[in-house]
Amino acid sequence: MASGDRTESRLSGGTAPVQLGTTSTTLCTVTTGHTFVVKQIIIANTDTVDRTVTLAIGTSATAANRLMSNLPIGANDVMIWDTALVLLTTETLTGLSDTASKVNVTVVGWDKTN
After folding, report:
1. How far is residue 103's CA from residue 74's CA, in Å, rounded to a whole number?
2. pTM across the whole model
3. What is the mean pLDDT of residues 75-98?
4. Which domains does the chain possess?
């Protein structure tokens, strides 16, 4: 890709969504020489009870770098967050849930070369 080119991509999960744990789980990390523009974050609660989700920019979901904090997602429900979040080279998008292996996250957007 030439500098400035962008490709629509699944920025997290590769071939499947990322399943959140109860500690910070990496959703995606921007590779050197690239910028990610996150257009949608799709969060699916596969459990039969409500769950909460926290997302952050950084290696841990501390209060200082949270995008959302303890957002409730209904049982067997999906939340689609439309955004224009820019992640710079080497930045990481992380997430966690109040229980492990019940909330799946897919991040889609543009992978732009610098």
Report:
1. 11
2. 0.91
3. 96
4. 6-113 (2.60.120)
